[in-house]
Design a protein that fits this description.
The structure is a homodimer. By secondary structure, the first copy, chain A, is of the alpha/beta class. Chain A is about 30% helix and about 25% strand. In chain A, helix 1 runs parallel beside helix 9. The N and C termini of chain A lie far apart (about 65 Å). At the A-B interface, strand 5, strand 6, helix 4, helix 8 and helix 11 of A face strand 5, strand 6, helix 4, helix 8 and helix 11 of B.
């Protein structure tokens, strides 16, 4: 018997994981490479950022998920590039994985519209680390406002700007407003969290521009009812850590969250194929890379037009369908058949605005309010990987709904605690000395001779 | 009516939180200062480190816990020192809080026996951040071992050394062994996690030296049954990130966890009082600081002898009792009565070794095995703050027991993701440039001209 063909799948998101799983009964050896050890259910990431869920509720160890799939090997590693001629995936640590068939599902990252310097002031929301950082900033802002003596500083600390009126931005803005109005309402002595300003900024004329117009209007009304100031047709021209500038209007705001532009993973460039303005790869209708029928691209990294000229959207169902299709294509190739064109089945769009409110478009059906919200809950629970996660999320939602509380109001600052030690490991010796100070203690509080060295 | 007296409580651990809560009906104004926004249930921290529990399961927002206590104000801040003459607590950010009565419950940190340089190689376990770092190191070691080509390197990656044979060390070693033998057993293709070595190192002749001898022997037997190599009477002489040296024996080990020496918070020194070798304050029997009847010290920071000459142990029940006593003493002082001496009521000691195994000494009663384990489960659930946490922990334990799984196997590396941005905020401009690179992407994978700046 001949050696089985080798398939490498890059990325364990919705598309890559689905593809790898669907290859279980195909006679190939599969290597699934991801730089995280977990599959992340990104649609609920904003709830981690807003302290409603634990990271582990929406992240599942990839290894555990596929433990019974004997033809699959999981590799935790960072893909640095490709040797397209030699058909090898190159890892940052120097390792190389040869392939006969390659599926690239590396996903998307944020785009700051040519202003990468904004990132530090306005974290995006793509990873668990991003979500914990956003959570830290939101919760710390209220704490610092409570301590602030200067009214202007207090105002800036109690002003939250969410940039981007897509589903992520709408969900974030709604959740921050709920934290201020309900969760924290009675917990401070010197500030009234209910008076916090939450702004949602969108460059286009309406929020949720991918939705039908009536649903955009409904979502905007729901946001306003929650106390969110919705600024449509407004462009961010500057962000500096103290303020956000919209056109000529400078708004003092210490906390800015980024839910705007999406850019394909920089790995797209490494494939040497034609990219669109967002860095996505213009793939053939059968998902293959131009000139490379052995390479398929799925998920947010692929730019694919539908029959009606619109693009396949960058949403989880599309990535899952493409991943499934890529696996089928590999089976076809093994049988000597050509790869087939992908057809997207549009299941509709759902976006939640806050407690009891959502909007959804499912074919000709437009849903708003409680019904849409229940549909949203159901769909998200259904798609959560792993029974345990589903149960954990469900129980926390019940608890939060009943109490207005948020179960994960934890400020975790791994960065502050361990950055010195880690930088030291990597040889940044100028940061070496602080590694010796005792855990969690600020240098200011310590005499210089603290350690008996 | 006169202005109410001001009480400042430093630290929202077991002692400080209990004291602040008990002052609810005393006519004082209380300020509770902590540098974290959460009260941490430290006895279960090792379960966060070993991926069994979520951080938020054992941490509860202080503000939320005391929201209904009208005479209490919570301050998130870092205490830098004290103005004992002016009766003010000084914060690192320059703020000062005046007091009439002060309770210092700043707790303990790790001690590295005069080797602070070991910390980066052997994280301790006092904060959520520590636990997440330990978890990251444990899980990453298996991943790297799976990738390692060199057998010696693989062996070092699969060798885990826990330093310190007290309850934390015993619990950690048992849990790491269970991860290797059960949770990860079938999840790797190139390594067999069951062959991982787990060593527990203790300088004294037996583990759990605070327990009766028969229980130490029982715990050691249970550890060996789990596959842990117990090295008693062994002293660590070097740790360098590649190995641990015990006396003259060098053991190649990449993952070292520190459960040994405890040192009182460096704040003890700021009180200008006589300290013992561990940095604890030698307080009067009524918990007051020598020379300062208006200052009480409770919890791990206080060194207090019992009538029989033994010390009050550094455990949660002792801290809680002292916190309660300090609140009563303040009420006495308001009535013009002198402060009373503290009497410790010993409820016994419990330590768990692993799934279904624990040891406990309650008065003359010595428990081992399943019975001790059930007692341990019951006591820890009972003392967990907040009903929601209790339920969440209980459900996860049931799930873990039934499946041998661990629900929180998440490698979260906030440090890597955000250290650059944070360092930049603080003005370390030499770290400024990397902040501009896109999220989560390794520099190696990027062309230098990546951003259209």
């Amino acid at each position: 018997m001949a050696e089985p063909k080798r398939v490498v799948v890059v990325g364990a998101g919705f598309g890559g994981l689905r593809c790898a799983r669907d290859l279980a009964r195909v006679p190939v050896r599969v290597t699934l490479v991801d730089r995280q050890n977990h599959h992340l259910f990104q649609p609920l990431l904003y709830q981690v950022a807003t302290a409603g869920l634990n990271p582990a509720d929406i992240a599942f160890p990839v290894r555990s998920f596929v433990r019974r799939q004997k033809n699959l090997d999981v590799v935790l590693g960072e893909v640095a590039g490709f040797d397209l001629g030699g058909r090898r995936v190159l890892l940052a640590d120097g390792a190389a994985f040869p392939y006969d068939e390659l599926v690239v599902a590396a996903g998307a990252t944020h785009a700051y519209f040519g202003h990468p310097e904004w990132e530090r002031f306005a974290p995006g929301l793509k990873t668990i680390e991003d979500a914990l950082e956003a959570r830290r900033r939101i919760l710390i802002a209220f704490e610092e406002a409570d301590r602030a003596e200067d009214p202007a500083r207090r105002l800036a600390l109690l002003t939250f700007v969410v940039v981007g009126g897509g589903p992520t931005g709408v969900e974030l803005a709604g959740a921050v407003a709920e934290i201020a109005r309900h969760t924290l309402a009675s917990e401070f002595r010197r500030i009234d969290p209910r008076r916090a300003r939450v702004l949602l900024v969108e460059g286009l004329p309406r929020v949720l521009p991918a939705m039908p117009e009536d649903l955009s209007r409904a979502a905007e009304a729901q946001l306003r009812a929650l106390g969110v100031e919705v600024r449509t047709g407004a462009r961010v021209t500057a962000i500096d850590g103290e303020s956000v500038t919209l056109g000529d209007e400078r708004i003092a705001a210490r906390t800015v969250l980024w839910g705007a532009g999406v850019a394909a993973s920089p790995l797209a460039r490494a494939l040497g194929a034609p990219l669109d303005a967002s860095g996505r790869i213009r793939v053939h209708p059968d998902l293959t890379l131009p000139g490379h029928p052995e390479i398929q691209v799925v998920g947010d990294l692929a730019r694919l037009a539908r029959a009606d000229g619109t693009l396949v959207p960058g949403v989880a169902p599309a990535a899952i369908q493409e991943g499934r299709h890529a696996a089928r294509n590999i089976a076809r190739a093994l049988r000597g058949e050509p790869k087939a064109a992908f057809a997207y089945f549009d299941k509709g769009l759902l976006a939640t605005v806050g407690r009891g409110h959502a909007v959804g478009a499912v074919g000709p059906l437009h849903l708003t309010g409680t019904l849409a919200w229940l549909a949203w809950l159901f769909v998200h629970l259904l798609f959560l990987v792993g029974f345990r996660n589903r149960l954990a999320v469900f129980l926390q939602w019940v608890w939060s709904y009943a109490t207005f509380g948020r179960g994960a109001r934890l400020i975790v600052d791994t960065a502050r605690r361990w950055q010195y030690a880690r930088a030291g490991e990597r040889g940044l010796e100028e940061l070496d000395r602080p590694a010796a100070r005792p855990p969690g203690e600020a240098p200011a509080a310590l005499p210089a001779d603290h350690h008996p060295e």
